[in-house]
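Q: My collaborator sent me two sequences in one message, no labels, and asked for predicted structures for both. Can we handle them in order? The first one she listed is below.
A: Yes, handling them in the order given. First sequence, followed by its structure tokens:
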Amino acid sequence: MKKLAVVSCIFFSTISYTQNIARQIENFNKGWKFILDSTHDYSANVNDASWRSLNLPHDWSIELPFDKNSPTGVGGGALRGGTGWYRKTFILPASSKNKMCLLILMVYI
């Protein structure tokens, strides 16, 4: 019974805390840059001017030719593998200064 009381107390404290947080949800799918490159590791300050502009969702592997000798095999759709890099640059509004901002990205593979 004590465990239930402690859990309930924590649960209700969490609810009251999160209700005081201003939440803003934005669609983050537009304005991405992409490059298919398995030979480089890119840092945050890379020049992405030559990268392709696109919106999400995006599946780069389906854009490649089918290849029966692909490492993924027929089970992988006979599509070539590789490493695709996605990048998005954005500016937080001035109103977010000195506030905690949380960015959650959901990736479906």
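Q: And the one she listed second?
A: Here it is, processed independently of the first:
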Amino acid sequence: MDSSDTFSFYLSDNSGNTIWEIPGQSSNSNGFSNSITSLTWGIDPTDSSNDLPGGTSLTTGTTYNWQISVQDSNGNQAQRNMYFIP
């Protein structure tokens, strides 16, 4: 991994409604660096205003989709999607 690699994170419900994304729509960032090794619920490390609506929580038994994407300095991209049910 190179320090110029950028990552993005996306979480949606089973209807495709965005619950959380990093970088958020109000962020001026293209993503977060590989120096960020964990995420705290509701905190966007790329934007201090954050993008998670207050009081948002996951519902037990509901299917959610999360996606992680990476882009390197050469423009190569990869992404992984997974479903989970809390």
